[in-house]
């Protein structure tokens, strides 16, 4: 190990081995730089943030350029250099297939020396690790702008559900909830559906005067995050007793619980009798306590009805730290093997 | 009237007054050039076609440039000149608000002399006119790549439903049907839904080997028409007895009928007792006879259950001709007034 130095920010760095953990969701990408040895709590030497790096959304050249930038920025924040990197773990939305993993690994090899350990996963994997201190065991549900369920067993079997983007019906995601709310406003306006408090609240929030103008608003910017940002309005309308908003949130809870149950069943995470215990990690803005109408708590209730042994975990560290912890654990496993 | 001349194609043109009728849908835009006097059947002097000219989809400069090109091409086909144009009727998807109409009218004024009569409508309006020989009375349902219901009364009251694009839940459209089918394949794959024949048929049709690859496929090209092109597969799976495909088509029929009924109710097209008679014009690939599973016939059945006086019309002329007929009718009305 190199000597420990203080950088300008009073942080260690320069010569000491570090690990990069990256979490790339549908809205933003976070990279943290942590020491290459294990300590608890893990000190964060550097942290950088950029926009969405899903290659499906922004294109591969743009995704790579942004991933490179955010990693170099976190390194620079830590006062570290590329040659200090011992391991990298990327958890990026858009990694849906082994060939996506391979492409990213090949690209990382062009930037970092060959001795650097590299791990590439879907962002759901590092979110799971953020709730299990780096262990890949249990099930995670992410519901932010997008949504995905992912699970892993100790012997390495994996499964996922949802996470296929807005065209393919992720109706429990923030985007899905908000799109259903906008649809409800259009339906109330043209006579296909019941009147709803959502109309006034959404029009006010978007500074529009008529539901007709929502059509142009949705086309004006294809960003899902912009649409997902309407979720708090749906929650507050449901809390105010609006039955249409209430129904939309119930649909979201049903869809989110359905995707978790599909993963738990496929991997038999609760054992053969369905009564076994497993961590159920919950990540993302949609699942955070919303006040009276708590989507996360409703999903927990729905899961516990089927799998009483599930124990809900709301991670105390962010998914990027989960990525770093996962890299540490995977390195340890490789050393043990 | 100018003298009638033969152009190179043996068509009349040059100096004779003509009318341009334009139909711009979610997939393509058609312009026809017809004589400025009324005759039956209406001879088509020129016809040109280009891609989607919805300003929401392709941007305003591109939409205008393409509209101008397609009109000039139809004129040139007819051997006519800009100075021969007596009237223009544009029916373009994306015209959802009076300000959309005004913008297009101002732009047309820059291209055509001030004596030219100009009419700008949503494409649903000219589709209605194609089934009523240019009269704005009754209800039209378009279900192609997108879907919309539109109705008009003799005293000029109008209403519409759906037609708000894929974000806003046009589930009866070709895009909507195909998106639900793709979602069903993803749900069957990850354990959220029942197995379905759609999986094999859609993967074969797209030359993909696994449902995971559908995610990348949907992102690769945002064109709705590409997704809507899967509708015949859904129909053939339903005809083969697949319950998932059958359910998707039932949902589409329900949504399409819902939007028609909303318009009929709002305008009281069937009178106060709901038994009055009105034309119900049906346009678009989704509503054309599909074989055993006939979406259009199912929609007719659903409408007739509520409004027995509706008489279904499948237009014998294309919507662009409807636009030209509408221009002729509107001009006549103005002359009478």
Task: Please provide a written account of the structure.
The structure is a homodimer of 337-residue chains. With 337 residues, chain A is α/β, with parallel strands linked by helices. Chain A is 45% helix and 18% strand. The first copy, chain A, has two domains: 104 residues, 2-Layer Sandwich (Nucleotidyltransferase, domain 5); 148 residues, 2-Layer Sandwich (Nucleotidyltransferase, domain 5), CATH 3.30.420.40. The N terminus of chain A is likely disordered. At the A-B interface, β8, α5, α7 and α10 of A face β8, α5, α7 and α10 of B.
Biggest protein-protein interface? A-B, 39 and 39 residues
Biggest sheet of chain A: strands, sense, closure?
Answer: 5 strands, mixed
CATH-level-4 superfamily name of the largest domain in chain A: ATPase, nucleotide binding domain
**Domain module count of chain A:** 2
> What is the class of the largest domain in chain A in the CATH system?
Alpha Beta
Low-confidence stretches of chain A: 1-13
Q: Report the average pLDDT across residues of chain A.
A: 91
Range of strand content of chain A: 15-25%
Number of helices of chain A: 12
Which CATH architecture of the largest domain in chain A? 2-Layer Sandwich
Number of strands of chain A: 10
The run of helices and strands of chain A is EEEHHEHEHEEEHHHHHHEHEH
Shape of chain A: globular
- What's the arrangement of strands in the largest beta sheet of chain A? 3-2-1-4-5
Task: Tell me the radius of gyration of chain A.
Answer: 21 Å
Quaternary structure annotation: homodimer
Helix content of chain A: 40-55%
Cα(first) to Cα(last) distance of chain A is: 23 Å
Structural class of chain A: alpha/beta
Q: At the third CATH level, what is the topology name of the largest domain in chain A?
A: Nucleotidyltransferase, domain 5
Organism (chains A, B): Lithospermum erythrorhizon
InterPro entries (chains A, B): ATPase_BadF, ATPase_NBD, Euk-type_GlcNAc_Kinase
Family (chains A, B): Belongs to the eukaryotic-type N-acetylglucosamine kinase family.
Domain ATPase BadF/BadG/BcrA/BcrD type (chains A, B): 20-327
